Amino acid sequence: MDYRLADLKVRLITKDEVSLWGQYMERHHYLGYRQIPGEALRYVALLDNTWVALIGWGSPALKCAVRDAYIGWDNDAKFKRISLITNNVRFLILPGVAIKNLASKILAMNCKILCDDYTRIHGHPVYLAETFVDESLYM
Fold it and tell me: Fewer CB within 10 Å: N-end or C-end of the chain?
């Protein structure tokens, strides 16, 4: 298939798509899938109305020394503001999809809508989106 990244769309999944999203994650993500911790949002990336990737965001880990040092939080500030962070808990390019720069484009597009979606769904914004990469697999 010949897709153009200009045609890429990233959107929240619907309630009817939650089960399918979870099945794809369980079947194809190397960590599997059970649930997303805390305040969750699930997205799908589409090209020509075809699912090409899935992304999930959830509550961040309470303790992450590198993040906390970077932000400059003490424990009191962290407990008050941890909900302003979201963690990219799952990201899956579906099998058979190989498009140069697709993952970067999806993350960029998703981050542009993430704060508004969190505000609408969970009642507060997020100001930081974190993600972790297993360097043994992807570097």
Answer: C
pLDDT in tens, 74-92: 889 899 999 999 999 999 9
Alpha carbon distances (Å) from 32 to 49, 112, 133: 25, 27, 15
Give the bridge partners for 2, in sequence order. none
Q: Which two tokens stand for residue 17?
A: 């798509």
Q: How far, rounded to the nearest angstrom, does the alpha carbon of residue 7 sit from its chain's CA centroid?
A: 20
CA distances from 133 to 14, 38, 55, 108, 136 (A): 27, 21, 14, 16, 9
pTM of the shown model: 0.90
Give CA 132 to chain center in angstroms. Answer: 11
CB 42 within 8 A of CB 21: yes
Domain annotation for the chain: domains and CATH numbers: 5-134 (3.40.630.30)
